[in-house]
Design a protein that fits this description.
Distance between the termini: 24 Å
Structural class: alpha+beta
Order of helices and strands: EHEEEEHEEEEEHEEHHE
CATH topology: hypothetical protein yedk fold
Radius of gyration: 17 Å
Number of strands: 13
CATH architecture: Alpha-Beta Complex
Helix content: 10-25%
Strand order of the largest sheet: 2-1-7-8-13
Number of domains: 1
Low-confidence stretches: none
């Protein structure tokens, strides 16, 4: 799964990368957790738009007083046939920009898992494939939510975890966000592990374990930081 991301890229650089304006309430983050807001890019009537959305998908058809799961991840292998994600995969796809994402590696003989950050090699940000939804609370109040699609790991990620987020190459961003594309077979072909050489990873401090910590120490190599809080 993918349960923490970082997006510490300045707004002006993000605007240049994606060719659109960035919401005024955006600010760089090092430790974004589920239920928190982050930047997503989605299709609009005029092209692409950016918005701040809450991490944890709530389908638009759920009633305001109805309880239900709010998944942070969606399995790419089953999203098309899922009652929760099937419709969104056809028409409400989004990009979740990330300077990096975190994963915890289980080590034989050790109780504590070792956190790692995974970052892009050649691009400033990773374009994580996501699904989004606008959940209507009442007539004049709604919440934008999202989930991140995951897939099998590539060779780089296999050393750390058995799943990874779907990372779209730059050439796939426009097709992914194209509202006219609703062919499930074409869409699911995009949901593949990124090339192993496109990402790099290093171990970080357990400082990242606390959602209260949101600073550059979260992404520093473990050798440069204290591994205890």
């Amino acid at each position: 799964m993918c349960g923490r991301i970082a997006l510490n890229t300045p707004a002006d650089i993000l605007a240049e990368i994606f060719g659109l304006s960035i919401p005024s309430d955006y600010h760089p983050r090092y430790n974004i957790a589920p239920t928190q807001d982050t930047l997503v890019i989605c299709a609009s009537d005029t092209g692409h738009e950016s918005l701040m959305a809450r991490w944890g998908f709530i389908p638009s058809w759920r009633k305001a007083d109805q309880k239900g799961p709010e998944p942070i991840n969606a399995r790419s292998e089953t999203a098309a046939t899922s009652l929760l994600f099937g419709s969104a995969l056809k028409s409400q796809r989004c990009i979740v920009p990330a300077s990096g994402f975190y994963e915890w590696q289980a080590v034989q003989g050790q109780k504590r898992k070792r956190p790692h950050v995974i970052k892009p090699v050649k691009t400033p940000v990773l374009a994580l494939a996501g699904l989004w939804s606008r959940w209507q609370l009442q007539e004049n109040e709604s919440i934008d939510t999202f989930t991140i699609l995951t897939c099998a790991p590539n060779e780089t990620m296999k050393q750390i975890h058995h799943r990874m987020p779907v990372i779209l190459p730059p050439s796939a961003i426009n097709p992914w966000l194209d509202p006219a594309l609703d062919d499930v077979q074409t869409i699911t072909k995009m949901l593949q592990p990124a090339p192993a050489a496109s990402i790099t990873t290093h171990e970080v401090s357990t400082w990242i374990n606390s959602t209260a910590h949101d600073d550059p120490r979260c992404i520093e190599p473990v050798s440069k930081t204290d591994t205890l809080f």
